[in-house]
Fold this sequence. Notes:
Elements lengths: L5 H7 L18 H11 L6 H10 L6 H4 L10 H17 L11 E10 H9 L4 E5 L10 E2 L2 E2 L4 H5 L8 H32 L8 H16 L8 E9 H12 L4 H14 L17 H28 L4 H5 L4 E5 L4 H11 L6 H10 L2 H11 L18 E9 H8 L5 E4 L12 H5 L3 H21 L1 H4 L8 E9 H11 L4
Antiparallel strand pairs: 1-5, 2-5, 3-4, 6-7, 7-9, 8-9
Amino acid sequence: MDAFTLEEEKLLSRFVSNMRGRVFVLQNLPEVIKGALFSRYSRSQKGLRRLLLDEFILAPETGFSQIAAYAEESGISQTLAIKKAQEFYDRILDGYGDDSIGELGGAHVALEGISNIATKFIQDRRIGGSPLEKSTRYVYFDDKVDSRWQYCRATQLMGRARSPGNNEHAQAYEQTCDTLFAAYSKLMPVMQEFFTKRYPKEEGVSEKAYAFTVRARACDALRGLLPASTLTNMGVFGNGRFFEYLIACMRCSGLAEIESLAEELQQELDKTIPSFVRRCKPSHKHFPSLQQFLQQRERQLKTQAAQATESIAKATIAPSSLAAAPTVKLIESDKRAEEKIIAHALYQHTDLPLEALLQYARRLPTTERNSIIAACVAGRENRRHKPPRAFENVFYTFDILADFGAYRDLHRHRMLTQERQLLTVEHGYVLPEEVVAAGVDKDFKAVMDTAARSFGRMSRMMPQEAQYVVPLAFRVRWYITINLRSLFWFSELRSVPQ
């Protein structure tokens, strides 16, 4: 344990949670300092407190006193101080040449007034980020700002694609979104009255709790009317590596809204963790090659996909049989699932090689197999009692066709691989039973048909941008590849009644 003088302790104490314990927390430090400090920590014999004191607090070239407000009388803003000292921190981070260094600092970012297309794009980057999005299930979306419904406008949506030739599409797009929001707002009180009659308040339930339940049911029944262009709010905590890759992908998205967001995100993160998000700037030496790679990959895959689609259309597979595919279809499963679970579960409790345990599991009779698998979940009472890591060695792939609203709920899970197709109206939509029971299904269907026609016109010229006009009730196709341990959590959490 490092020893410090009283003066040194005075300098350090505001930046660490304690001066004596072997476990302590860094505090009152900007992310750029914490990241640089940890990067040095891995290659130093010094303890973290001593390292912080010797190489940061007492080293004038770090700009520490200004960045950490160590000398508050300096009058220099933290943003200016970080910029002034960035060269020093870049030199430290560059000296290690390890992408994982970018995981040592992070930021909490709020993105407000962004579309559901943008939120899904951000959530597609799974590792290193934790997003939380405004719920369509519990929050009304019928407020107007400056007498306008809150959705991504054509000027934001089309950007460079906006031209005299597609002004007609822009007008039709906004008219369709207005129609969808108007229907949502009109039907909301109708559905609330319906649920009040169907589910009267029970004795002992507070008025506040009952009102919340009715609102949630009404929002859930009508959220399918909201177009993907609906503006929402999202909070994201992520490390520098996450944000760097996210911004790079956003810059190459081909969607004006998302590319504009990338620039705003870059500007804000440059104020807090600039050293961690350098390489996603167009001016950085590594960015052009990444951009070229991402764009070339997309172009070539789209060409190959078009050829595959044409080939399948000419084959004996009838389109009607494809359309009649089940909502959830198991595409691939592990035929040796039991053997793998048994062998991997026993592995850490023996000194045997894995191959020997796999052979052992293969020879076991069913009763003994069941006994070992049962031991893996012995005493399990709820989803927070997780099965052992052995279950991560078994994988399943599902092809799913469900409404975009349901997809939004399932998409948030990150311990899996999933990819979706572009939003479309080709797979039809889900009409909630409650909407039919309330007698407003004709209104619902009418605006769905309006949206489908608008999508049909837009998609011929701009298939990416046409997604914005698709209501959440329309079905989208996506696949999931997931290990069995994650599937436990996924299926149990999402099968709980809402």
